[in-house]
Amino acid sequence: MISIRINKYLADKQISTRRGADLLVLEKKVFINGKLAVLGSKVSDGDKVEVRGAEKKEYLYFAYNKPIGIETNSPRIDLFPLGRLDKASHGLLILTNDGRITDKLLNPKYIHEKEYLVRTSNKLRSNFKQKMEAGVNIEGYITQTCKVKILNDFSFRVILTEGKKHQIRRMCANLFQEIADLKRERIMNIKLSNLGSKSLREIKGKELETFLKSLDMN
Of 22, 45, 78, 86, which one is the catalytic site residue? Predict the structure, then answer.
């Protein structure tokens, strides 16, 4: 292993986020080969790293149904949202206190499905599904292929594996479709189901196990 900074080492070992690791170092809880680590200390192959006196953090995961009309936020101060939904959209957000999974879920190099239910103001064009699935040019960027299921003349489901800002709205606008309602119903295996607006549901058990396994977290 090439020498790496202690905060990256602890993050790679899923012990903490990099910021959290820096705090552990400042609190004098991190030791390398029996010696107290300092900010910027490096770790190499064969080094023994210990975190002493740190309480084991209880990680929490919740599904939240964000309502229309508010910016992405969290109803609990101990949780933060993973990703965003614009003010005019509603539906599923995942809230957590686990900073370890932020990059694994949001970094575009990882492929994770997100499913949306979309209603349009104008009738869907006959070639809408074909053009949407093939990729749409949004300001010089060609979106990745996606899956579209037409429900009726004014609504469809779409499954994306990327998350550009306002992506579905921009794709639809390019295809001359005006969105009347946009609702996120699924992120990977986590489903909104019948969760009420502004409500929280803890993610646990097999559902959580599958979610974390998909992120290579267990």
Answer: 86
